[in-house]
Each structure stands twice: as C-alpha cells, then as structure tokens.
Design brief:
With 330 residues, the chain is α/β, with parallel strands linked by helices. The protein is built from 14 helices and 11 strands. The chain folds into 2 domains: 243 residues, TIM Barrel, CATH 3.20.20; 69 residues, Orthogonal Bundle (Non-ribosomal Peptide Synthetase Peptidyl Carrier Protein, Chain A). It has an 8-stranded parallel β-barrel with strand order 3-4-6-7-8-9-10-11, surrounded by 6 helices. Strands 1-2 form a two-stranded antiparallel ribbon. The two termini are 34 Å apart.
Length: 330
Amino acid sequence: MVKVGNIELPDFPLLLAPMEDVSDPPFRALCKEQGADVVYTEFISSEGLIRDAAKSVQKLDIYGYERPVGIQIFGAELGSMLRAIDIVEKTNPDIIDINFGCPVKKVVCKNAGAGILRDIPLMVKLTAEMVRRTHLPVTVKTRLGWDSRSIKIVEVAEKLQDVGIKSIAIHGRTRVQMYKGNADWKPIAEVKNNPRMHIPVFGNGDVDSSEKAAEMRDVYGLDGAMIGRASIGYPWFFKEVKHYFETGEKLAPPTMEERVAAARRHLAMAIEWKGERLGVFETRRHYTNYFKGIPHFKEYRTKMVTSDNSEDVFATFDEVLEKFGDFQFA
C-alpha cells in the first residue's frame, strides 16, 4: 500500500498526469473507469484563479466519482499562490498539487512551472508556505532540473519533503529538453533510494507500455507511475498495465465497438460540461489515438477534427463503426 498523506492507494498506483486541455472531467471519468488510481485536473493558473478568470475557475470542477482527485496549480508569486490555495480548498479536492515542471515558455518566463527550477530557495519557500496554508495534503510535480548541468533533484526532493509535501512526481527530463530525447529514470531512482526519503516517489515520462511501467516498478523501484501522453485518446492504458501486473500477459486491445463507444461518451460528456462549441473542439486531440492503426482512415479522421457540429462527428463515428467494425487491432 502507498499513502499520500492519509490517502491509501494500492501498491504501485497509476496516476493520470495533469495535462493542459487534456485532463478535463470527461477524460478523467474515462480514465478512472479504466483503472487510474488518482486523477489530476489540468494545471490552473493561480493568477487566473484570484482574478476569477472563467477558464481557470471552470477547471476547478471535480466530481465524486473521480476521488481521489488532485487539483494542480501553478505560479511563482507567494501571495497569489496562497490566495489560490484558499479558493481551491473550497472545492474540497483530496490533494493540492504544485506544478514545478511545466516547460512551456509562457509559464516559464514568469518563473512558474519549470522556471522555478532556476531558483530552488524560492521553490522551497513557496512550498513551505503553501503546506502551512492548507489542511489538505500538498504534493509536487517537477522535473530533474533546469538543464543537464543543474540536476540536483535528490537534494531538491529532500528539501521539499522536509517542508511537508506528501509525495513527489518527477518527470525524467530537464526543462531544456522539453519532451525531446528519452526520459532518464535513474535520477528519480536516486531520489527514491535516498535513505532520508519517506514519502512516495512517482515516476513520469515515457511510460508508454505495460512493460515500461513494470520496469519503473521492478528495476527502478519507484512507488508508482504518472501516465501522461500514453493515455491521450487511450484511457484503456491503465487497465492494460494492471492486467499485465496481475498476469504477466498483454490484454487484448479494445475493439472498434469499444473505441467508438468511448469516443461517443467522451464527446457527449464534453458537450455537457463545456457546451457544443468547446466540447467539439477540445475532444479533437483524442481521436487520432482512439482510432490509431486503422489503414485508409484519413478521410474519417479529417471529418472528426474539422467538423464544428457534434451531429456530424457522431455521424462519422457511426460511419467508422459500419466500415471498420471488423478491424482487428494489433
């Protein structure tokens, strides 16, 4: 069993990573059904929250079936982060997560996200004050360091633990790497193997197969895996990993019928949550993976990602099921 504060999780839990424009309530619901042990919201700007910006506030929507669910916030200004904590607390999540890992320029240029990796004392101070502000467990998601010359993640993780965080998730790349090259899990294992560490250490980055998840568990000895890109348009990833852990065998991929049903539910939930226009637009990024591997599919994919009307997209799903219903996924 793994514990984040008082939250009890199974051995080697699988966590859905917070992903901008991906980890919204409809997608979180699908991942939870398929075995995600913890789900996180998209990352939310502390400045947006305290200004009551509609987009930031809507990201606070969480539902009972998601629990345990974490709300992730980012920022670099102490006053704003503390006020954001007060706002987040009112929505009663199970976890408050601090984003110290986003590599995107518009975030980093404000010293937020991975930008704060250039100022570790500020990172530790912010974290300490946020832990003091709330009764909820505070966790951190970060990267190995700013660049290859400044990797001090063992020391950084220990300092964050000492000011009260309840778990840490580490992406195995530096900010300079962005998402290029291969994630390096060795420094994450060094954090876990630090005899002073007693909080869970979760690995993130390139966990794109059941075998990789098993390697993270069995070879690197981490406490769990945070799954990001491998789950986009493929919520079954969590179920497949758990089946592999239990049996040592690969689970058969979802059928065309199951994929169409999931895509339909995903779109319907997105429309219910965000309305027709945004619901249609924000589900598009998932369709490539829902139907990955089907030959001569370009015409249908194009329809899905260019239609502005949900009726047209639902009709395309029906066409796909009729034309490719017998397709066997590898």
